[in-house]
Amino acid sequence: MKILVTGGAGFIGGNFVHYMVNKYPEDMIVNLDKLTYAGNLETCKPVEDKPNYKFVKGDIADRPFIMDLFEKEKFDVVVNFAAESHVDRSIEDPEIFVKTNVMGTTTLLDACVKYGIQRYHQVSTDEVYGDLPLDRPDLFFTENTPLHTSSPYSSAKASADLFVLAYHRTYGLPVTISRCSNNYGPYHFPEKLIPLIISRALNDETIPVYGTGENVRDWLHVYDHCVAIDLIVRNGRVGEVYNVGGHNERTNLEVVKTVLRALNKPESLITFVSDRKGHDMRYAIDPTKLETELGWKPKYTFDTGIPMTIQWYLDNKEWWENIISGEYQNYFDKMYVEK
Ligand code: NAD
Ligand code: DAU
């Protein structure tokens, strides 16, 4: 099979590319990435010399480019990770979120309709369901929870999901969607909470906690997300949505304190700052459908996954230090031209 993975120079897409290239040597994995600020070819280094891997630089919203690529490559499967992914950036500048997350998705869908594929998989998020109240721990997001978005990011992701489902109903496109909770693990861009805590704490810098720090996120190791997507792409029912999450709810303050403790850094680094506008209170996934239909079971809990992740950041300082020093973007732009 020839599998197009978009956004494979980012956090989850990068981990997925590693997983697929190693697990399926008989499949060809084509990684298409625009290399925005969040894309990093260094993330693809572990697989770049494998015979079943190829990198293509490009924008999923560039219609002529996408149509040419599909005509040339004749993909069997498309897994779309490419997106603007950071909520705070979407609050500052929503437009690129519409362009990439919505129009990029519809461009890929049009190419799939035109050239035909066996499966289009959309990597979505639990944020499309909005949030849950803190005083109702009995409530969880199921696949039937109505879409009720809060931020420009989640609105763009929910719009994309609706287009994906519409292309199934209208054109019979064989689609699936996964909606996962917060991921953590290797290659996570340090603008996001967990790598931000690790990188700043290691430099003895303050850790900004939005609002009261009582907001709850449901954390899943990125490896378990990759396994879930692979299962859904191969065995999931066409036209279906699958929630992905491992019941690892933590308040932001708990997350910060856990990481500081593991690094032997003082809680005095915690600094409360202004709240995120429209800040969602609690996310919590019910993964029953994925577990019962496809036999998915997460390998890691928060308590086993966090020490591993901290160790990865300690062992791979160069990867994140280049990012936070701003060097990597210039460096890789230059590297890419030279290639
Ligand atoms: P990321 O920001 O780390 O990576 C996104 C990647 O997409 C980058 O490599 C970037 O260069 C690329 N990209 C951006 N715009 C592009 C475009 N127009 N064309 C081609 N490539 C483009 O994001 P992530 O955290 O790895 O998230 C990946 C996907 O998973 C997103 O769709 C996101 O909505 C979804 N998701 C993320 C989480 C999470 O916790 N991070 C949870 C659930 C779902
Ligand atoms: O739930 C899935 C989503 O998880 C994905 O769809 C998004 O792409 C991904 O970025 C993530 O969104 P969040 O907004 O939950 O993640 P973030 O790491 O930005 O923030 C996690 C929580 O920590 C959130 O409640 C805001 C808070 N926070 C974040 C940062 C960056 C802080 O308190 N301080 C910070 O400096």
Oligomer: single chain
Runs in which pLDDT lies below 50 for 5 or more consecutive residues are none
Task: Determine the N-to-C terminus distance.
Answer: 27 Å
Strand order within the widest beta sheet: 3-2-1-4-5-6-10
Q: Determine Rg (CA atoms, Å).
A: 19 Å
Would you tell me the structural class of the helices and strands?
alpha/beta
Bound molecules: nicotinamide-adenine-dinucleotide, 2'deoxy-thymidine-5'-diphospho-alpha-D-glucose
CATH class division: Alpha Beta
Largest sheet data? 7 strands, parallel
Overall number of structural domains? 1
CATH topology category name: Rossmann fold
SSE series: EHEEHEHHEHEEHEEHEEHEHHHH
Strand content of the residues, in percent? 15-25%
Query: What share of the residues lie within helices?
Result: 40-55%
CATH architecture: 3-Layer(aba) Sandwich
Shape: globular
Mean pLDDT: 96
Number of strands: 12
Fourth-tier CATH superfamily name? NAD(P)-binding Rossmann-like Domain
H/I helix tally? 12
Characteristics:
339 residues, alpha/beta, Rossmann fold, 7-stranded parallel beta sheet, 3-stranded mixed beta sheet, 43% helix, 17% strand, globular, binds nicotinamide-adenine-dinucleotide, binds 2'deoxy-thymidine-5'-diphospho-alpha-D-glucose
